[in-house]
Design goal:
By secondary structure, the chain is of the alpha+beta class. It has two helices and four strands.
Length: about 70
Protein backbone atom coordinates (compact mmCIF):
# COMPACT_ATOMS: atom_id res chain seq x y z
CA UNK A 1 0.00 0.00 0.00
CA UNK A 2 1.45 3.42 -0.93
CA UNK A 3 2.26 5.94 1.76
CA UNK A 4 -0.44 8.63 1.86
CA UNK A 5 1.71 11.22 3.58
CA UNK A 6 4.35 13.70 2.54
CA UNK A 7 7.42 14.99 4.35
CA UNK A 8 8.57 18.59 4.58
CA UNK A 9 11.00 20.60 6.68
CA UNK A 10 10.01 23.21 9.23
CA UNK A 11 12.42 25.83 10.58
CA UNK A 12 11.10 24.95 14.05
CA UNK A 13 12.41 21.68 15.46
CA UNK A 14 10.38 18.94 17.13
CA UNK A 15 10.31 19.62 20.89
CA UNK A 16 10.81 15.91 21.57
CA UNK A 17 13.76 14.91 19.36
CA UNK A 18 14.98 18.08 17.61
CA UNK A 19 14.25 16.90 14.06
CA UNK A 20 13.05 19.44 11.51
CA UNK A 21 11.53 16.80 9.19
CA UNK A 22 7.73 16.73 9.52
CA UNK A 23 5.01 14.56 8.01
CA UNK A 24 1.44 15.44 6.94
CA UNK A 25 -1.20 13.73 4.81
CA UNK A 26 -0.91 14.32 1.06
CA UNK A 27 -4.26 16.12 1.10
CA UNK A 28 -2.82 18.91 3.33
CA UNK A 29 -6.11 20.12 4.76
CA UNK A 30 -5.68 23.04 7.19
CA UNK A 31 -6.83 20.88 10.11
CA UNK A 32 -4.57 17.89 9.30
CA UNK A 33 -2.17 16.99 12.06
CA UNK A 34 1.57 17.42 11.48
CA UNK A 35 3.81 14.81 13.07
CA UNK A 36 7.56 14.59 13.49
CA UNK A 37 8.87 12.18 10.85
CA UNK A 38 11.52 10.87 13.26
CA UNK A 39 9.73 10.25 16.56
CA UNK A 40 6.12 10.54 15.30
CA UNK A 41 5.15 13.08 17.95
CA UNK A 42 2.26 15.43 17.15
CA UNK A 43 3.73 18.89 16.48
CA UNK A 44 0.91 21.15 15.19
CA UNK A 45 -1.89 21.50 12.67
CA UNK A 46 -1.04 22.01 9.00
CA UNK A 47 -2.40 25.58 8.89
CA UNK A 48 -0.03 26.44 11.76
CA UNK A 49 2.89 24.87 9.90
CA UNK A 50 1.97 26.90 6.79
CA UNK A 51 2.11 30.08 8.88
CA UNK A 52 5.59 29.18 10.11
CA UNK A 53 6.72 28.44 6.54
CA UNK A 54 5.31 31.76 5.31
CA UNK A 55 7.18 33.66 8.03
CA UNK A 56 10.34 32.20 6.59
CA UNK A 57 13.60 30.94 8.04
CA UNK A 58 15.49 32.84 10.70
CA UNK A 59 18.83 32.96 8.89
CA UNK A 60 20.44 32.67 5.46
CA UNK A 61 21.80 29.20 6.20
CA UNK A 62 18.37 28.06 7.37
CA UNK A 63 16.92 29.49 4.12
CA UNK A 64 19.28 27.35 2.02
CA UNK A 65 18.36 24.23 3.98
CA UNK A 66 14.65 25.02 3.64
CA UNK A 67 14.98 25.53 -0.11
CA UNK A 68 16.81 22.23 -0.60
CA UNK A 69 14.62 20.19 1.70
CA UNK A 70 11.25 21.52 0.54
CA UNK A 71 11.92 21.56 -3.21
CA UNK A 72 9.77 19.14 -5.18
CA UNK A 73 11.56 15.97 -6.18
CA UNK A 74 11.73 15.03 -9.85
Amino acid sequence: MPDLSTDFRLPVACPNCGSHRMRVSQVKNPDDKVFCASCRRYVCLYHEAETVLQQGPGSDSEALIEKAANSPSD
